[in-house]
Amino acid sequence: MISVEEALEKILSYVDVLGHEKKPVLNCLGQVLAEDVYSTIDIPPLDNSAMDGYAVRAEDTRGASRSSPRELIVVGEIAAGSIPRGEVKPGTAIRIMTGAPLPKGADAVVQFEDTDEANRKLSRGSLSQIGIFCQVENGFNVRYKGEDIAAGELVLKEGKTLRPSEIGVLASVGRATAAVIRRPIVAVLATGDELVGADQPLAPGKIHDSNSYTIAAEILRYGGIPRILGIGRDLIPALTEKINEGLDADMLITSGGVSLGDYDVVKDVLKERGEIALWTICMKPGKPSAFGIIKNGEKKVAHLGLPGNPVSSMVTFEQFARPAILKMLGKKTLVKPSIQAIIEDNVKNTDGRRMFARVMVTKRGGQYRARLTGPQGSGILTSMTKANGLAVIPENTKGVMRGDIVKVQMLDWSEDELLEE
């Protein structure tokens, strides 16, 4: 057996960042930018108003207050998207909407709430004059040309993961498409004669295939494109045929068939078609895992063989498949965030492997606390639905006692779950 760290290092050494693709910016969400993006324009393109109000000369508001307003003559109005034709001269103002270009002569904007516009509309029905209730400084409520982005500026650097804010910036500089690291296609194959599809009736001795769905959902969650191949039977010819269907993918993930049973034949196919880089890892659950390369002509496809038990499959995916997918995507942070928490249960570790215990983390009294989700059998998939973290019990210990501090690898950061109780 090798350590979790050695296994991860070995797996990551076999996968590389993928090439890039150009696509509409909205379809790039979550992907890594493969180019530096420079702006060819100023944003905003002109000095403009940050508020609905009146464009004024700041010096014309000196001493203004609600008890002693400064009256200015209204000489025009500017809507957003239009070009101002008038000019603000001493003693005048122009009514202006948010985003409208600032007219010549104006150096500040007084918002409607700080004028007597509402009263004038009610009592007089006209706005030939306006009373200003506050004194403002030069630049008040003004957004200046190039204040956000200047023409020629580097606005997004290669390697940046695109969030909604970056998508908005791309659109704001007139980029309808972007070059991004492409998403890896990951083929998914569940193996075992006992499996039937989720939509098939159960015969005696059979179980529904859940691994294909959980693994595919994990791939989607972390940015890959899953391709479900179906179920591979426990015979080398049948399994080889199924595996061949996935060899045009960037990675192949199988579940089951990698332990020491007579019908665990995935490792046999792996030996025959390529090379095994590792087999069995010092972890629980997830010991019977395999990784290697399957040859497809000149192409070599990374293959990760996960255990067949559903919890083992998910935990092993989190430790190894997830970082590999993120590396292919060009992401820099490959590990889950971890916290220190007070464990609220006794947890035994009897066989010298690193244990990943399913826990629910909450926050009480300013401290994180972790409690087991219940029985920890590797076939109890519902234990994962109750967990938001994995408590890491080191391999060189016999377990932890209630009240001990443990490292917890967070699977989710749900605000509702982590609120103070």
Molecular structure report:
There is one protein chain. This protein has 421 residues and is α/β, with parallel strands linked by helices. The protein has four domains: 4-17 and 183-328, Molybdenum Cofactor Biosythetic Enzyme, Chain A, CATH 3.40.980; 23-42 and 148-181, Molybdopterin biosynthesis moea protein, domain 2 (Alpha-Beta Complex); 48-143, Molybdopterin biosynthesis moea protein, domain 3 (Molybdopterin biosynthesis moeA protein, domain 3), CATH 2.170.190; 338-418, Beta Barrel (Beta-clip). It is built from nine helices and 27 strands. The strands form eight sheets. The protein has a six-stranded mixed β-sheet with strand order 15-12-16-20-19-17, sandwiched between helices. A five-stranded mixed β-sheet has the order 7-4-6-5-8, with no helix packed on it. Strand 23 (354-364) and strand 24 (367-372) form a beta hairpin. Helix 4 (211-221) packs parallel to helix 7. It is elongated, with a radius of gyration of 31 Å. The mean pLDDT is 93.
Which helices and strands, and how do they pair?
Layout: H1 4-13, E1 20-24, E2 37-38, E3 48-49, E4 53-56, E5 70-78, E6 92-96, E7 108-111, H2 117-123, E8 129-132, E9 142-143, E10 154-156, H3 164-172, E11 177-181, E12 185-191, E13 195-196, E14 207-208, H4 211-221, E15 225-232, H5 236-245, E16 251-255, H6 266-273, E17 274-279, E18 283-284, E19 290-296, E20 299-306, H7 310-328, E21 338-343, E22 347-348, E23 354-364, E24 367-372, H8 382-385, E25 389-393, E26 399-400, E27 405-410, H9 415-418
Parallel strand pairs: 5-6, 12-15, 12-16, 13-14, 16-20, 18-23, 21-24
Antiparallel strand pairs: 1-11, 2-10, 3-9, 4-6, 4-7, 5-8, 17-19, 19-20, 21-27, 22-26, 23-24, 23-25, 25-27
Helix pairs in contact: 1-7, 4-7
